[in-house]
Amino acid sequence: MNKLALLFLLLPVLAGAQEKNLEERVSALSSELRCLVCQNQTIADSNAPLAVDLRNTIREQLEKGATEQEVVDFMTARYGDFVLYRPPLKATTLLLWVGPFLLLALGVFLFARRVRKRPEEPALAEEDRARAARLLDEGK
Amino acid sequence: MNRKLIWTLAIFGALVAVLAVGLTLNPREVPSPLVGKPAPAFELPLLHEPGKTFSSKEPMGQVWVFNVWASWCAGCRDEHGVLTQFAKTGAAPLYGLNYKDQREDALRWLKQYGDPYQASFYDLEGKVGIDYGVYGVPETYVIDRKGVIRFKQIGAVTPEVMQKKIVPLVEALKRE
User: Fold this and answer.
1) Are B135 and A34 within 8 A, CB to CB?
2) Cβ–Cβ under 8 Å, residues B119 and B54
3) Comparing C-alpha atoms, which of B172, B130, B127 is closest to residue B151?
4) What values do phi and psi take at A30, rounded to 5?
5) B135, A37: Cβ pair inside 8 Å?
6) Structure confidence by residue, pLDDT tens digits, B99-122
7) Which residues of A touch B125 (CB under 8 A)?
8) Residue A67 and residue A71: Cα distance in Å, rounded?
9) CA-nearest residue of chain B to A50?
10) Are A76 and B33 in contact (CB < 8 Å)?
11) What pLDDT is recorded for position A16?
């Protein structure tokens, strides 16, 4: 499951791999990986020394003929799934992936129930209408 | 109406509980996938004797503590006293990985604050650091007799971490 999810996330990368040159592959891959020093940036965006080192590591490995998958495996073996900006779909991350859809479904369900349950407005009786008009006139 | 109130309170309570847990977690502490895995092997020159190299196979068979430090790292100064005290007890050998540092700076730092390490290895390019998943110096590992990483501390070792985690773990591992 894990492997399949990773393959899925890398599909666009893999598809274009052949015609891409090395630098493009390095930057594509590093924009999928989180910089652990400055956690809200990717390795591609960050200039932290570790991010620079990791970009160089990615370049070295790709030069040696490693596939994108192998580089991603290298990174997750050291830093965990946390380095992946798109975490793999597995038991511990299931809620992360399906949570928003569950909440949406719950919202739709509650909304639908509410709409269906709403009692029909009783028509205003003639005398009530007259009384309302009178009260409104009084205010003027 | 009453049911509605109970529901609202329940949802509010759940939200508070989720936030109370979530917001008190430290996002900088990333669980290391390396705990429970064999410590990555390496060979590095010694900090004090550049001509000699050290192999991570050498401490094999004993429990050892591996501390990643640098002269430019402020947290390393904070934990230095704690590590020095630990080294003095002789509970387990303490080795240092001098991470992305200049040799002169590192040696001056040790001279100034004292050198608790059995030996320090010189990792100028930080390659061994990457293998160990280092991302915030200081970091400290406890490695067992079989060379498996059993504990990782990210950031400075506080007296509390030392007394409550590292020392008992080292003692337990020595009995294994």
Assistant:
1) no
2) yes
3) B172
4) -75, -20
5) yes
6) 999 999 999 999 999 999 999 999
7) 53
8) 7
9) B135
10) yes
11) 53
The radius of gyration computed from the CA coordinates of chain B, to the nearest angstrom, equals 20
Complex ipTM tops 0.90: no
Q: What is the pTM of this model?
A: 0.74
CB of B42 within 8 A of CB of B128?
A: yes
Tell me whether the omega of the peptide bond preceding residue B138 falls within 30 degrees of 0, making it cis. yes
Domain B29-175 -> CATH class: alpha beta
- The pLDDT tens digits for A70-98 are 999 999 999 888 888 888 888 778 888 89
Q: According to the model, what pLDDT value does residue B131 have?
A: 94
| Interchain contact, B133 vs A39, CB within 8 Å | no
Tell me the C-alpha distance between A29 and B7, whole Å: 46
Domain boundaries, chain B: 29-175
